[in-house]
Amino acid sequence: METVATxxxxxxxxxxxxxxxxxxxFHTGTLIADKHxxxxxxxxxxxxxxxxxxxxxxxxxxxxxxxxxDHMASLGCGHxxxxxxxxxxxxxxxxxxxxPTATMxxxxxxxxxxxxxxxxxxxxxxxxxxTRNIREDRAHPAHAFKQPVFLDSENLQDLAKxxxxxxxxxxxxxxxxxxxxxxxxxxxxxxxxxxxxxCVVPVEIKRPGLEFIYPDESFYRDFRNGxxxxxxxxxxxxxxxxxxxxxxxxxxQVFSRISIDFxxxxxxxxxxxxxxxxxxxxxxxAQHALARRSIQKQVxxxxxxxxxxxxxxx
Length: 314
Prior knowledge:
Elements: H1 44-52, H2 55-75, H3 95-98, E1 110-113, H4 116-136, E2 149-150, H5 159-167, E3 171-176, H6 184-196, E4 199-205, H7 217-224, H8 231-239, H9 244-254, E5 260-262, H10 268-284, H11 286-309
Helix pairs in contact: 4-10, 5-6, 6-8, 6-9
């Protein structure tokens, strides 16, 4: 087969042989400098080792490599096809849309716990703002999740399903409004999170006419004595094997951390700063949460094996 020699010039800022990073590659030409030049080299083996050490960059690179290989296949291998000069013009901002969901976690980075009657609109605003911030931050650990921020938009009536979402979250963001601590479903979410050591981030909704009163000793006394919750609320907690004492201790644990404000009626710049602060608080605990998930899975696996090894009662 006869080949035709051609040449191309590479100017300042140019690149070549990117394929080396993603596939097994044989160079298709000879590089010659016709003047004094500075060349920055990235070694494929060193690049792979560094990327593999960090989960999110690794996922991003796997996705990019898949798209690069698809691009190579579309060009073909004949004359004028794939060469050391082949470039892939990718809009990195769109890469999140291509992330392979099959390799992503079913966990949530954030679970938004709220009383819909008082903070339904604010919860939706936070969902939209957090999702946008995460999408714009390519290095954010929440990219590892199929659904980074969970909001019960389906009005789940099955407690088991709702608790499952809490079990699979790394941060529970509790929206503080006047009646939130009287809502049994919110209390179940709080207790479930505290039992598992999931980070609970209290966020006070700052809105005219809506003031959250922080619990004091009088609150905890009335709560423990059954004077705060309605009978139906206490019945629901009891059905989930949650005592008033346990719920009170979980609430105390939540407020051992300083709350963060979210002010939906203030300027966009203030809201953006508040959302950023909430995400930063959650991200600070992300690595601990991942380690905790691993430990929990090991404990559950051990308990399951231990139960299976027990002799049946006669």
